Amino acid sequence: xxxxxxxxxxxxxxxxxxxxxxxxxxxxxxxxxxxxxxxxxxxxxxxxxxxxxxxxxxxxxxxxxxxxxxxxxxxxxxxxxxxxxxxxxxxxxxxxxxxxxxxxxxxxxxxxxxxxxxxxxxxxxxxxxxxxxxxxxxxxxxxxxxxxxxxxxxxxxxxxxxxxxxxxxxxxxxxxxxxxxxxxxxxxxxxxxxxxxxxxxxxx
Length: 204
Hints:
Elements lengths: L8 E2 L24 E2 L12 E2 L14 E2 L2 E2 L8 E2 L4 E2 L2 E2 L4 E2 L2 E2 L4 E2 L2 E2 L4 E2 L2 E2 L4 E2 L2 E2 L4 E2 L2 E2 L4 E2 L8 E2 L2 E2 L14 E2 L28
Antiparallel strand pairs: 1-2, 3-4, 5-7, 6-9, 8-11, 10-13, 12-15, 14-17, 16-19, 18-20, 21-22
């Protein structure tokens, strides 16, 4: 253990009588810095597990991350980052306990926001596939749309928009299950109204 901590700096391992560390860590457990009494680092990390900073009592980092798994920030107790992300998997922000970011996204797969428990963003979208908003559980946007395929709104479960429309093919609104428009109409082909399933307009 490279350093001894003074009585004002508590590191939970054994040192001399002038240095207080209330519990013993093994020689295979390295905690590289001394934390002040106002900065609690609750566990000993092994040499293969790095917890790089001291967390204040209001900032809890509950696990030791391996050197190959980086958890870059201290999250407050009201902000939980539940897993360690590998260096190739970036989880950029701390999510509040009421906000769930369930997976680590790779650097090529961006999930830009924290979704609340009532809002589901089920997958990581690649940088070329944008899912811009969190949809409520009652509003399903089931797929990632490519940047060339824009689906601008979340459709309610009672309103089905079955396909992603290309930017040159705009379907501006969600159709109800009783009003089916099965395809995207080109911007040069406008169908001003939706026909009910009992009223079929076969061509554009």
